[in-house]
């Protein structure tokens, strides 16, 4: 939004009530009320084009099917940004996504892996799917002085599936590494996880570190970081660890933020990581190979030339996913969609 506004584009938005967004909003709408769908459509129809951010579970109803009530009321062109493409969807989940796709003028996915899966496994025409990468904020200042101890960093809304356990296990093998590295896990517990289980997952991780005797090398920061605070945090890391359980993940904003900040990455081989790190900005490991994870982290921490080349490759990628570049891609797509609508009249 900020990049679009800097280019002179007028941007407003409507968010789902109870979403995790920290942005200001022009309107908040309950996700289960018919009048909210009508009001949302009225607001969007007053614009030149509607861009809908879609992720499974974001909207009300079964698999977010109440979003269809908004889309069906729209008269303006529609671009739907699809953040997740389930590999093995339930029948209704597939139906919802295919219905959304059929109603949209274009679908945007955030990686080529997502485009391939959506075009291959769903009833969606490949020509209507456009890849525009997830954007990231490129640091404008030099990296701050590195921490006294090398930092392995994982951040995000804490929940099972992030694979934090894997790195805690690895810390027991890294105690002899130069500088005595520490593992920093940053972010509040995911709201859905918190509602269901409180802080049980975080408590289990703390207990795991205690049991393995690495409590002094594993720290948890429950604060939410965004904007400059997040950029500064990432800059403190010697290596970013993304040890996710999922082999389906076609979009990771954390991965993009790590890359644009020029940090080496060690990740399990989920699709978006395979795509972004294949040029050398990171090391990929199998999620079921703890020895490989430990070895990869040790390599980055103990081989300055390797870490430097990975950081340099990450900075090369940054120019392709900086927010101003992404904003220009959306503007170009919007103009093409509007022109297509005009020709069909």
What do you see in this structure?
The protein is α/β, with parallel strands linked by helices. It folds into two domains: 2-134 and 322-344, Rossmann fold (3-Layer(aba) Sandwich), CATH 3.40.50; 151-320, 3-Layer(aba) Sandwich (Rossmann fold). It is built from 14 helices and twelve strands. The radius of gyration is 21 Å and the shape is globular. Residues 18-32 have low confidence and may be disordered. It is an enzyme of class 2 (transferase). It comes from Mycolicibacterium parafortuitum.
* Class inferred from helices and paired strands: alpha/beta
Overall radius of gyration:
21 Å
Specify the CATH class of the largest domain: Alpha Beta
Strand content: 5-15%
The CATH level-2 architecture of the largest domain is identified as 3-Layer(aba) Sandwich
Query: What is the general shape?
Result: globular
Order of helices and strands: HEEHEHEHEHEEHEHHEHEHEHEHHH
Determine the number of helices (DSSP H or I, runs of at least 4 residues). Answer: 14
**CATH superfamily (homologous) name of the largest domain:** Glycogen Phosphorylase B
Q: Any low-confidence stretches, pLDDT <50, length ≥5?
A: 18-32
Largest sheet: 6 strands, parallel
In helices, the fraction of residues equals 40-55%
Main-sheet strand order equals 9-8-7-10-11-12
How many β-strand runs?
Answer: 12
The CATH topology of the largest domain turns out to be Rossmann fold
Distance between the termini: 30 Å
User: Number of folding domains?
Assistant: 2
Q: Taking all residues together, what is the mean pLDDT?
A: 89
Keywords: Glycosyltransferase, Transferase
EC number: 2.4.-.-
Enzyme class: transferase
Organism: Mycolicibacterium parafortuitum (Mycobacterium parafortuitum)
């Amino acid at each position: 939004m900020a990049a679009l506004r800097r280019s002179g584009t007028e941007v407003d938005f409507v968010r789902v009530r109870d979403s995790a967004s920290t942005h200001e909003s022009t309107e908040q709408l309950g996700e289960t009320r018919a009048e909210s769908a009508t009001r949302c459509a009225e607001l969007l129809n007053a614009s030149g084009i509607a861009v809908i951010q879609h992720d499974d579970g974001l909207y009300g109803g079964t698999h977010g099917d109440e979003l269809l009530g908004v889309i069906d009321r729209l008269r303006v062109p529609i671009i739907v940004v699809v953040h997740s493409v389930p590999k093995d969807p339930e029948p209704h989940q597939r139906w919802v996504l295919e219905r959304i796709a059929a109603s949209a003028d274009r679908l945007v996915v955030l990686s080529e892996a997502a485009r391939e899966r959506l075009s291959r496994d769903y009833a969606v025409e490949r020509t209507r799917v456009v890849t525009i990468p997830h954007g990231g904020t490129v640091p404008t200042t030099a990296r701050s002085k590195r921490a006294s101890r090398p930092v392995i960093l994982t951040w995000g809304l804490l929940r099972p599936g992030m694979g934090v356990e894997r790195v805690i296990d690895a810390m027991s093998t890294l105690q002899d590494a130069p500088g005595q590295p520490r593992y920093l896990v940053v972010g509040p517990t995911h709201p859905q996880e918190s509602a269901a289980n409180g802080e049980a997952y975080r408590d289990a991780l703390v207990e795991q570190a205690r049991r393995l005797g690495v409590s002094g090398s594993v720290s948890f920061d429950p604060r939410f970081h965004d904007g400059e605070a997040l950029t500064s945090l990432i800059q403190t890391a010697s290596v970013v660890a993304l040890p996710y359980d999922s082999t389906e993940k076609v979009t990771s904003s954390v991965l993009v933020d790590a890359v644009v900040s020029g940090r080496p990455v060690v990740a399990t081989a989920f699709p978006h990581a395979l795509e972004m790190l294949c040029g050398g900005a990171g090391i990929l490991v199998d999620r079921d190979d703890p020895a490989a994870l430990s070895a990869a982290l040790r390599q980055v921490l103990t081989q300055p030339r390797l870490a430097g080349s990975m950081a340099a490759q990450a900075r090369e990628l940054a120019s392709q996913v900086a927010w101003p570049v992404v904003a220009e891609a959306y503007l170009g797509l919007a103009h093409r969609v509007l022109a297509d609508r005009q020709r069909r009249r």
